[in-house]
Each structure stands twice: as C-alpha cells, then as structure tokens.
Amino acid sequence: MATETRDDLSRLVKERRAELGLSLARVVAACGDPELNVSWLSRLEHGQVREIPGRERLAALARGLQLPFRLVATACAAQFLGLTTINSEDGAAQAIVDRLPEFTEAELLQVRAIVDAFARSRPGSPSDSDG
User: Fold this and answer.
1) The CA-based dihedral angle spanning residues 35, 37, 40, 43, taken in that order and rounded to the nearest 10 degrees
2) The pLDDT of residue 128
3) What pLDDT is stored for residue 4 in this prediction?
4) Does residue 80 surpass a pLDDT of 60?
5) How far apart are CA 102 and CA 91, in angstroms?
C-alpha cells in the first residue's frame, strides 16, 4: 500500500513566512532557538526534513511565525505521523485520529459527535449549566 506524503507543516511554514514577508534568516532569528538554522528551515519548507521536530523546535517555529503552538503541532502531527484532527463545533475540544481519510461519512459524523459531546460536558462549557 502506497503511503501518501503530507506537507502540512512545510506548507504552513512557507505560507506564513510569505504572509509575514520575512526572509528565512528573519524567521530563524525570531524563533530564538540557537540550534535552528536557515538550512534546516529551508529543508522543512521543501519537504526535505525527515526527522520529527521536537516540542521545543515546534514552539520556536510558532514563536518565530507568530502562530499558536497548537496550530504548528497539529500540522506537524499531520505531516510526520499522518494524524488528522477533528475539532468540536465550538473549538473547545480536539481529537487526533489516525487513518481518518479511510473513515466513511457516517464514521466521521460519529467521531465529530463524540468530540462535540466531550466539549459540552466539560466544566465551564456553555451548556454545562443545562445539567
């Protein structure tokens, strides 16, 4: 079975850098990670990085690109682990799902319903007072 190549993080980094109008060197400087360099960032943008970036590296990328860590981590999980996320309708909960593209429409609806139910059941959720 052929494995689909994902580029979620590479695309996110490249598009965000272009959106901010920053050079590779400016992003590297803004990241504040002394081990991150222009060569690595360029290889990431071109889909040539094969090792999964660690949490610190992802946090540095988020900082340098002025993005929420969760967005960068989600893109990393998709690109390097093939994981896909499903968010609750209100954005309060998120599930990471393996092999999501293989799910039927009915299965996708079930997973989304579970994530929505979890979000509603959390203390402080808008429907928490419905009890």
Assistant:
1) 170
2) 45
3) 59
4) yes
5) 23
